[in-house]
Design brief:
By secondary structure, the chain is mostly helical. The protein is built from 35 helices and 8 strands. Helix content is about 40%, strand content about 5%.
């Protein structure tokens, strides 16, 4: 294997990777694993394709495209390093924060972060469309926008779907809908036109992505494919009412961009080259430093409140103005114009004391603007004219906070020499040290601490700089702060009860977690939802942090406020390696949530068959009854997870157990979910094809209602009685006739 530089296609073998493959995601056609290259010690993502579930030539087409895709290098697209033919896989850069789809579901994002992600995604798409000819994505959705360590967005899975000359619209639609893309497909695709897709296809998809980011909801939730198709064809779009009322003014401009992108007339949709410029200006207005995110509360229905997220920081804008006549009235405009043009020599000559005392919009002073210009000599000149060094904008930002935000070390020192107060916070009580800690700027943090900054200062939600440094993975700053804090500070909680260890663990910062534990952090400390650091790291899939915590004496079966143990969370998210660690340390495979779910239930629900097998091998009960008497087998059938169904049946799950509320067996559920492979698995394990539920309906009644010919045939071939009436007296034939399932009617009549 040659060097990993991304410039040419590599051909990896399984031996190039360490043995511990960690499954981080699962899609319809395969899985994504986190793997580590032995030679370079680099984490990669390995996306494997199950060729039995996709078209026979699908992986071959990917191989044909991969060499071209591997040549593409741009900040906002995920690099493809090569292929691993042994595992029918593509090897890509590992994006530690997963997909935007998962982030939107699990975190509350503030407006600046939403705008940033929209802009970065538009940058990635603009790059693809700038190729000659344009490289169409045709699969753009939030699950194909991935996030790196610092929550910057990159476009993934481009180039895998193609329009081929002579392809029928029906076949093309099948390729798209097979990936669950119905919400992102533009209306012209549903017509009989044979025109190939254009760049406007991706622009429409991007409009839906913008809506998802702004609302943090799923479009057309609860609607079936036919309903979505009809609504979109008639010009309907996701509801505007779901966009929060409490939003910045700039959001209305972003909504305007979104509406243009999903215009019914594809000729009216903008090019990404235009969208990039607009989203850039909106993103700059609400610019924030560093990764701004935080896990949602477990309490559904309550409006979450995350005050420790820095409120949107409005960049000190330097207006570009033409030279104006010096008639006194425009004197201050000329001064700002010189700063804007970076004509610092003339600025220093022209500036006078009356300019220094002028107050601009939002209470900004000339000193604020001069600090934002980043020229230390000009700052010194303004200070020498008597500028108030601790003046504040309307949002409470001092010149020192502005300098810290921009990491202007010379200007920070200059302001401190002129008496800048290190303890002065903004409107949310964020001190300069809070901003330095969040940015990972240890040089500034040391300067501030040496000039009297309070190491354990708290902003209005109780966050200390130490919390921020731990959340964002800034180990050097953590060490510096710990050297200036008392030993008790390592266990201090913010408003939601989270300690620095909770935050380091939730974001996967193993070295910081290890450091905190060595300084006496309690591994069993709980936050307001009764979660320990182990809960958070297990849920997020941070294997090394979990290993560190397990070595520290953490209680492995601690339950949170919903009754979830770390094993429940790891099983639900599909973190096989973490489940293995927890079970080896004595975690109970049969512990129950408040709803009665075991880890086996949650693994079955999400389709994680490897974890089902793992739990079974550690004594987990495959027939455990949860809410309403549902077993793992019921859940696997309900969510059409045939591989899990097979594994559960192999582990002696009872195929004829009835749930409590309506007496449905797993076979009833599989027929209602139209999961033909699950039906076959159940029949082969002697499921009763004539079982009746509380309404006396048999599996044949349900299969007839849903119109699945293969399932009806399988049931009939295995002894299903077509004459049995349900509680209303209807036979399966009557049900098929009532539901207008003509093929089923013919089958049953014959």
């Amino acid at each position: 294997m040659d060097c990993l530089d991304g410039s040419q296609l590599k051909n990896f073998t399984k031996d190039d990777f360490e043995a511990d493959w960690i499954k981080v995601a699962e899609c319809r056609f395969g899985q994504v694993y986190q793997v580590k290259l032995k030679l370079w010690r680099v984490n990669c993502a390995l996306k494997s394709f199950d060729t039995t579930l996709s078209a026979n030539n699908f992986y071959r087409r990917i191989k044909d495209e991969a060499s071209n895709i591997a040549k593409l290098k741009f900040k906002y697209i995920v690099p493809v390093y090569g292929l691993c033919s042994e595992g029918t896989s593509v090897v890509m850069e590992y994006m530690s924060n997963g997909s935007l789809n998962n982030l939107l579901a699990s975190h509350n994002l503030m407006w600046p972060k939403k705008f940033q992600i929209i802009h970065e995604a538009s940058m990635g798409m603009n790059f693809l469309h700038s190729m000659k000819p344009p490289l169409l994505h045709l699969n753009l959705k939030t699950s194909n926008i991935l996030l790196d360590d610092h929550l910057h967005a990159k476009i993934a899975d481009f180039g895998f779907i193609h329009w081929e000359e002579g392809m029928s619209k029906t076949l093309f639609m099948e390729h798209l809908t097979a990936r669950g893309n119905i919400s992102y497909i533009p209306p012209e695709t549903f017509t009989q036109s044979l025109d190939p897709p254009e760049t406007s296809f991706d622009v429409y998809s991007f409009g839906i992505v913008i809506w998802e980011i702004l609302t943090q909801q799923k479009p057309y939730a609860g609607c079936n494919v036919t309903t979505v198709l009809l609504q979109v064809s008639h010009g309907k779009r996701p509801s505007m009412e779901m966009i929060p009322e409490q939003r910045p003014d700039e959001c209305d401009q972003m909504i305007g961009i979104m509406r243009q992108c999903w215009d019914q007339d594809q000729s009216k949709r903008p090019q990404f080259s235009d969208t990039v410029k607009k989203t850039e200006s909106l993103s700059d207005i609400l610019k924030i430093p560093g990764p701004m995110n935080r896990h949602k509360s477990g309490d559904e229905g309550q409006k979450p409140n995350f005050p420790w997220l820095v409120s949107p920081i409005h960049k000190i804008a330097l207006p570009e103005r033409p030279d104006l006549p010096s008639d006194g009235q425009h004197d201050k405009d000329i001064i700002l114009s010189l700063l804007s043009k970076k004509d610092f020599g003339n600025f220093r000559q022209s500036v006078k004391k009356e300019h220094v005392d002028t107050q601009f919009s939002d209470n900004k002073s000339l000193l604020h603007y001069t600090v934002a210009s980043k020229d230390a000599e000009s700052v010194e000149r303004v200070l020498s004219l008597g500028a108030e060094v601790n003046c504040m904008t309307a949002r409470g930002y001092t010149p020192l906070i502005i300098a810290v935000l921009h990491r202007l070390h010379d200007i920070i020192s200059l302001l401190l020499e002129h008496g800048a107060v290190t303890t002065q916070g903004d409107e949310d009580q964020w001190t300069p040290l809070h901003f330095a800690a969040q940015n990972g700027d240890d040089k500034t943090a040391r300067l501030l601490l040496d000039k009297g900054a309070v190491a354990d200062a708290r902003e209005k939600a109780g966050w200390m700089p130490l919390h921020l440094a731990c959340q964002n993975g800034h180990e050097t700053v953590v060490r510096l702060l710990l050297s200036r804090l008392s030993k008790e500070a390592v266990g201090e909680r913010e408003a939601q009860g989270r300690t620095p260890l909770h935050l380091a663990s939730a974001y996967g910062h193993q070295n910081i977690a290890k450091l905190l534990l060595s300084q006496g952090a309690d591994p069993n400390a709980i936050d307001c939802s009764l979660s320990t650091a182990l809960h958070l790291s297990a849920e997020e899939g941070h294997n090394r942090v979990v290993r560190q915590l397990l070595q520290s004496g953490v209680i492995v079966d601690s339950a949170d406020s919903r009754g979830y143990t770390p094993l429940h969370l790891a099983a639900q998210k599909g973190h096989t390696g973490i489940c293995r660690q927890l079970l080896s340390k004595g975690a109970s495979p049969d512990s129950r949530t408040l709803q009665g779910w075991t880890p086996m239930h949650l693994a079955a629900l999400r389709g994680h068959e490897a974890i089902v097998v793992q739990l079974d091998s550690h004594g987990g009960c495959v027939n455990a009854r949860g809410d309403n008497g549902w077993t793992p087998l019921h859940l696997a059938c309900h969510h059409s997870e045939p591989e899990v169904v097979a594994k559960l049946l192999a582990a002696k799950a009872d195929p004829n157990v009835s749930e409590d509320s309506e007496g449905w067996t797993p076979l009833h559920v599989a027929c209602a979910s139209v999961s033909f492979p699950s039906v076959l698995h159940l029949i082969s394990h002697h499921a009763d094809v004539n079982a009746i539920n509380s309404g006396k309906a048999t599996p044949l009644h349900l299969a007839s209602k849903h119109g699945c010919v293969p399932i009806v045939k399988a049931l009939l071939l295995n002894g299903a009685d077509r004459t049995l009436p349900d509680s209303s007296g209807s036979t399966a034939l009557n049900v098929a006739q009532r539901c207008e399932k003509l093929e089923i009617v013919q089958l049953l009549e014959n």
